[in-house]
Please model this.
Amino acid sequence: MSSENIHITKKLRNVFGFETFRQNQKEIVEAILAGQDVFAVMPTGGGKSLCYQLPALLLDGTCVVVSPLISLMKDQVDSARSLGIAADYINSSLAAHTRNDVLNRFKKGKLDLLYLAPERLAVKDFISLLEEVPLSFIAIDEAHCISEWGHDFRPDYLILSSLKKQLPSVPLAAFTATATQTVQNDIIKRLQLKNPLLVRASFNRPNLFYRVLPRNRVMKQIENCIMQHEGEAGIVYRLSRADVEKTALYLQERGIKALPYHAGLPSQRRFQNQEAFNRDTVQVIVATVAFGMGIDKSNIRFVIHGDLPKNMEGYYQETGRAGRDGEPAHCLLLYNRGDMMRLGNFIDQMEKQEEQTVAWKKLTQMGDFGEIATCRRKQLLSYFGEIYPEDNCGACDVCAQGVEKVEATTEAQMLMSAMYRTGQRFGASHIIDIVAGARTKRITELGHDKIKTHGVGSHHNKPYWRRLIDALLAADCLKATGSPYPILQLTPKGDDVLFGRSSFSFLQIIHTKEEQTKQQLPTDYNTELFAILKKVRLTLAQQEDVPPFVIFSDKSLHEMCRFFPTQPNAMLAIHGVGQAKLARYGEPFLIEITTFLENNPEYRQTGAPLPTTSQPETDTTAGQTVHESGKLAEQGLSLAEIAEKRDLKETTIAGHLEKFLAQGSNVNIDVLIGVEKRKLLEEKFSELGTDFLKPVVDALKGKVSYNEARVIRGYILGSKEARPCSDSPCPS
Ligand code: ADP
Ligand code: ZN
Model:
């Protein structure tokens, strides 16, 4: 390891209390340290703050952080200070004399970090002040706000366009959790980033469990879900303000500490309710989508949607507020098809036809998510252009119920031929009626009982056909176009199945227990001690007037209740405990743990060993399986051979190899993929970027497969990783 690397890793441990970097953090930190501009899309909870806080500590000068979330600044500053970072903020909420105080400290170079709202930069002379004070770099949070293409454009952000011109020598690092390719390009252009390091992290949130249940008794269903999260914080989203109020009242009447939040409440009340939730004095906040932007709480353990969200972006963001600390959390969507109509009414009132069309399309995709019984995680990620490589994600209702692959080529052909013979002009239910042999009025009127496929599939029930259509849609063999009553059409992939050129099988849920809501999550920590430590945390938080998660995250407390540290050194091995936090908060926790062990000596022996060596955050079994496939590739086996040998799908193996290669490996890529294809793909990836596979595969029109593209992408990323070694001696 180079001395620079050792330095960074030390800071990571000693200041932040983390063993390893998360995906992408290291390369971002290194780029910033090297003075390069950065543009990074990382999901909520992905660990963006560390990406600028760590270099801010290491570099000379102050790092200015621009953020629109005024309500968050205090917490962010408290949180940075609790780590021992010299941080402060300036925004309109500060009294003039405090503001001057902060400015003075800034001018004297006493700050590592200074948080600002964008409008501050518009204040006369402020930018010239920035020219005078030595800056390490400028970090721009929520960078999508600068783009009119994004979903949260803020005119205030436009002022940032002039930063590069006015402060040409100060590197810029822009971060956001949501940016499509178009928005990304727009942000880079507007900020005038110079040859930035581009990072797009995976949007997968492995610790979130997704579940969809048909909505029947909404209040009771919400209550049941909350009851399974006793003492844990959660958000309930409702569509209308009236439903927010009603639900909050219903829960209060049942002894659950819940408060409402919506834009109709006076701002003072809103603030109070949010703070009560933030500080763990109420368990549940019932809210419209107005709630969330200003919330940084890391220990939200569940998010319930009582109504269908308008689109997948919203759903992803709202559910994304759960489990920021990386500990397991639940997302429950109560789905009722009627919501489509309700939301559709709003859409129909939109003025522009274009907006209507887009909104309908997004709503339909959201409805599909509720309805289509394939892996929820796969669906969510594919919405963001990402392909989830595993067959079974293990953390959504569809995958967890147990699924098995069922051959269905003949059945798929039955459906498709019914579509074909009726001119591809009908929706799913009509096609199902034909195949199942129904004699509805419409069928007889149209003479569809006379066609050859009428009734050929009467050996299966309608739900079977519905699921098959869902699976064909998800596999891109069919497409549904038009709204609100989409019609089914064949795609080229569908043609292949219909004409027997390829087969089709799909995942079927083995046992459906619709009402099963209890999710068995192993609690591998001592819950009794956890309750005690939570109280200690709450007391400290109240004394310091900060939210409890600023003291220690749930994840830190869970580890304390698993490893029972009683000495400062052992405490330092706990996730999230660095030198500053140990000195400031460690003692009362050490005392409680010692007392607990005195009363429960049996845990002295059973306490699991402390995580002393650096453990990468990746799931070890996932790591192993990747490694196993990688080793076979190193031995010269082809994708198909590895798939056969391991009894896994080729796509799964391709996913493994992508990861394996991205870490640098000895695989002979030209044996695996072939020189010609490698060259073609390298060229296209360098032209179109490595974020998405589809454009690259499409551009090479049938010359390469997705699997091959995926493997080469890993290879390219892996050789990038390795590049610095060619200039300097490799660390051994
Ligand atoms: P974001 O701003 O991207 O939503 P945060 O910066 O708030 O995410 O980080 C989310 C959580 O992840 C925080 O609780 C943080 O302490 C934790 N975290 C960040 N980096 C790491 C890491 N390298 N290892 C472990 N936990 C981390
Ligand atoms: Zn799944």
Notes: The chain has 35 helices and 17 strands. The radius of gyration is 27 Å. The CA atoms of residues 230 and 701 lie 54 Å apart. The chain has five domains: 3-200, 208-401, 404-509, 527-606, 619-717.
